[in-house]
Amino acid sequence: MTTDATPAYQSHPSPDDDSTIERSESLSRLTGVNGADTSVDEFERRARHGKPRLRFTATHALAAILIMTFVTCMSLTLLIQQSINYAAIDGARHTQEQTADPGSSDADEDGSDSNGQTGSDDADKTADDVETSTEAGDGTSEPQSAPTVPDPADPRLDLNTATLEQLDAIPGIGPVTAQKILDHRQRIGRFTSVDQLLDVSGIGAKTLEKIRPKVRV
Amino acid sequence: MGRKTGARRARESRVECGSRDRRLLPVAITLWAACLFARFLFDALVASTMGGVTLDGATIVISVAAAAAIGIAIWLLSTRLARIGIGREIVMVCVMTALLGMIATWSVKAIAWHDPAAAKARETSGYMHIEGTVIEPVQVSSNREADCQAEMRLQAIDDGIIRVGSHARVRVFALDDDCTRIHRGAVYRVSGAFGEARFGSTPLWMSVQGEDGLRLLQEQPWPERCREHVQESFFRATSGLSEQGRVLVPGLTMGFLGQDHLPSAYDARPINDTYATQLEERFRAAGIMHLMAVSGGHFVIIAGLVRRACARLLVPRRIVAILWVVSTAVLAALMAPGDSVSRALVMGWIGAAALYLGRRTQALSALCVTVIVMLLGDPSLAWSYGFALSSAAVLGIVMMSEPIAEVMALLLPDRLADALAMTLAAQTATLPIQVMMEPQLPVWSIPANLLVAPVVDFATIMGLAGLAVAWMNVEMASMLAWVASWGTRVMERVAMWLGGGDHAVVPWAGGVGGALLLAGVEAASSSAVIAIARMLGPSQAVHALPGIPFTANPRNRIRIWWDDTIRMIRHLDQYLD
Fold first, then answer.
1. Sign of the C-alpha dihedral computed for residues B501, B505, B507 and B510 taken in this order
2. CA closest to B17 among chain A residues
3. How many structural domains compose chain B?
4. Shortest Cα distance from A60 to chain B (angstroms)?
5. Is residue B157 part of a domain?
6. Which of A150, B62, B310, B344 is the most buried (most CB within 10 A)?
7. Cα dist. B372→A206, B28, B432, B458, B533 in Å?
8. B72 and B205 part of one domain
9. Which residues of A touch B127 (CB under 8 A)?
10. Is B548 found in the same domain as B451?
11. In whole angstroms, what separates CA B257 from the centre of its chain?
């Protein structure tokens, strides 16, 4: 057809060329109305046309599945890593609670040290988390262990659990100073050493030496 | 084998129209529902572990039974979809997206839950130091104990002994002197009372205490300083307006209501708080609350201006798209941060991407892509009212406004029909969410919206123009703001008039139940209307042919009468001859 058409263009001046007639015939077949247009099936098909598109292809479904699988694997990996970290933290906290001696002020440092070692064993990325737990351990386990395991032989007053009345009862501490100690405790969280009483305004070295035998941390 | 060929036959007999692409709609809805479900599940789990309730046999049996029921329902649904020719693939994609959404939500919730700052706040509340960047502009405090509040993204939290990294979001409350020192984008070290929030979406609160409670660690970067300068200049420009203008012009233009802005040195007189609260209340009762927040309207205006200017200058398509993206990004940066602003921005960018590629935009697909991308990026948007209202309004307008307008146009002039249809569609779609926020229905919302519609665009353009020049010339900006305040005066009058009466709102059941009830009522009434219209209107098959069926309706009658009258008058001398 194309090979026929090419000479037809070249011999354009002659209108009664065979190929030109053939071309116009094939065009006419495509234009106008013909019998097939009236078919009922085709009409119904066109009536149905225009349904909103809701059909995904299998490729779309496969892509969704692959993305989903990838994300699941990724989050599972991260979750497992995280729970390993938390387990390590819990273990560290447990040993800290066991080793903690409520009577001595060194217990806190020991606990932190054991935690620090656990942290350094882990990957760098988890160091942050472990640090978190160190602090969480300090916040939770110490006040829990200290009052629950009181040393009956120790008559000294624990600065971290003392109330206003108890402090007031100590000779050398009046109600104002007692309130200042409580305020200071709230500000710094907890006392780690009796020497921190020096930071409280109104307590000098002299007063501290006077009350030192009466209090502990 | 026989079923397979049946499914294939169903597939071939269903002819879909590519210009009405609704494939992503079920995917987006499933994703949203999955995010909400995962949040509910997480909260329930946390509540049960905190309350000391352990999983017992009955709970496990019920969960397994529910999972099995869901599985069977999905299987039945996919079989049905395969039979009607849509195919099972859509169910597959929806299930995968739902799982994806649940994983994303769960991770985000878990990260927020295990964040050191959040853990600390659950344990104790008390004196603490935090370091972080202020990520939102300083506002007047919602809490009577403080003067101002600012949202902060933490970098570290410090209890005096140990300093830990954190990424939690904290709302910082401060008193008079400190308020003037807080700037968006700067990094601060704040000391004060730290604890869990009493209300609001931000989970943690911090009140600045003491002399050295607020210490600047890092100055705000220069883009932040420019932004603050532009916004402050605009507030300065509006400070000379009447009371309503001072509240509404910044509200309409930037989404900052005047009374939320911190009173500064140039504010000779503070905004009357009672009036501002009453105005806000009346706007809500009149159902035009959306004017006080920025949404798609601003972006449509700016994109339209850019495209028209570029079309006049015969700028190539791709450069227009890039200019579109840049200008809307600048606009969004100057607005009050909000989920509706981000939604409008991302959706506008999808339109720009379509322009860049030289393809037609489909509003529904653009909306669904926006929702899917934004939800997967930040699942907490799923329970944000701003995002939900904005998305629902767009969905309503895209899906319903055209058919409603077609029906309305039989009785009303085209422009009025379009405006009415748009309001009606947006209201219908957002009403269930509004009911969830406040258990009442605004009765006059449609007339109120129609009354303000003519001035909204005008006042917005004037306000934006004022914002654009405020940093160079405050006097000129004041003039533009004054013009814009005439538009807002109309809104104020409408709100006071329609939102003020005794019958401005009717009570409705609140909460999720009320929302579902309202959605059910809406669905029933709209399907009834559609059924009646189908019964009365021309048959479906007529629509298979090109063109619009010409029927006897009031609009056609009036048009013919009008055309005849005009023709008669025009050719009057011929009749006289």
1. negative
2. A50
3. 5
4. 7
5. yes
6. B344
7. 69, 6, 21, 33, 34
8. no
9. 186-187, 189
10. no
11. 17
Give the span between the Cα atoms of B158 and B155, in whole angstroms: 10
Question: What dihedral do alpha carbons B50, B53, B57, B61 form, nearest 10°?
Answer: -50
Give domain status of residue B12, yes or no: no
Same domain, B64 and B205: no
Distance from CA of B75 to the nearest CA of A (A): 16
B507: β partners: B440
Q: Flag whether B65 is in a domain.
A: yes
- From start to end of A96-161, where are the E strands? 157-158
- A143 near B123, Cβ under 8 Å? no
Cβ <8 Å between A71 and B100:
yes
- Domain end marker among B478, B503, B528: B503
Partners of B93 on chain A (C-beta within 8 Å) are 56, 60-61, 64
| pTM given for the model | 0.75
CA distances from A201 to A164, A177, A181 (A): 16, 8, 9
Name the 3-class secondary structure at B549.
Answer: coil
Q: Which residue has the tokens 């960047």?
A: B133
- Does residue B8 fall inside a structural domain? no
CATH placement of domain A157-216: 1.10.150.320
Q: What's the token pair of residue B546?
A: 């090109």
Domain end among B328, B362, B378? B378
Inspect the interface and report whether the beta carbons of A55 and B16 lie closer than 8 Å: yes
Interface test with A, best of B25, B123, B130, B161 (most A CBs within 10 A): B161
What range does the domain containing B237 cover? 222-287+444-503
d(CA B462, CA B467): 9
The beta-carbon neighbor of B93 closest among A60, A82, A128 is A60
For A53, which of B18, B100, B544 is closest by C-beta distance? Answer: B18
Cα B553 off chain centre by: 38
B63 plus B212 within the same structural domain:
no
Please list the pLDDT of chain B residue by residue as tens digits (577 residues).
445 567 777 777 777 888 888 999 999 999 999 999 999 999 988 888 777 666 677 888 998 999 999 999 999 999 999 888 888 899 999 999 999 999 999 999 988 888 888 888 888 878 889 999 999 888 888 888 888 899 999 999 888 778 888 889 999 999 877 888 889 999 999 998 888 888 888 889 998 887 788 889 988 899 999 999 999 999 989 988 888 999 999 999 999 888 888 876 556 677 888 898 899 889 988 888 888 888 788 999 999 999 999 999 999 999 999 999 999 999 999 999 989 999 999 999 999 999 999 998 899 999 999 999 999 999 999 999 999 999 999 999 999 998 888 888 777 888 888 989 999 999 999 999 999 988 888 888 889 999 998 899 899 999 999 999 999 999 999 999 999 999 999 999 999 988 887 777 888 888 888 899 999 999 999 899 888 877 766 555 555 566 666 777 777 888 899 999 999 888 888 877 6
Burial A68-77 (b: 16+ CB within 10 A, else e): beebeeebee
In a shared domain, residues B310 and B187? no
Terminal-residue alpha carbon distance, chain B: 82
In A1-60, the residues whose Cβ lies within 8 Å of chain B are 43, 45-58, 60
Dihedral angle computed from the Cα positions of residues B178, B180, B181 and B185, in that order, rounded to the nearest 10 degrees: 120
Q: What is the ipTM metric for this complex?
A: 0.74
In terms of domains, do B476 and B486 share one? yes
- Show residues of chain B in contact with A140, CB under 8 Å: 123
Tell me the one-letter amino acid at B83.
R
Q: What six digits make up the tokens of B505?
A: 């709102």
Residues B245 and B188 in one domain: no
